[in-house]
User: Fold this.
Amino acid sequence: MRVLLDTHVFLWLQTAPGRLAPTVLARLADPATQLVVSAATAWEVAIKHALGRLPLPEPPVSYLPSRMAATGATALSVSHDDALGVGLLPALHRDPFDRLLISQARGHGFVLVTADPAITQYDVEVMPAR
Assistant:
């Protein structure tokens, strides 16, 4: 199974795994599960950290790669198709990062792991994080 981690899920996996359901933790730890982190997550983390809204033990430029390596997650770039796919989504959710993740999950066939109930309104396969 290939899963795309919502930003909060990626962060919880590092700092607060107890916020994730035990079944989700088991699935994410399964060697058959490919964990994927979008460049949109890197962008969101960098912005929130720079604004002082996301304290991290080290700068995002080193935090993300080291935590991705520790969890075995691979990086997903944002393509033109991913970005343009955002415009095809109904206006059910205003968060631009989440909308990009939805577009990527749909376009690449990923299961999106999230605790955001607004994302379930979209035609995208979701694994509830809690």
In short: Strands lie at 2-5, 34-38, 74-76, 111-114, 126-128. The mean pLDDT is 98. Residues 96-108 form the longest helix (13 residues).
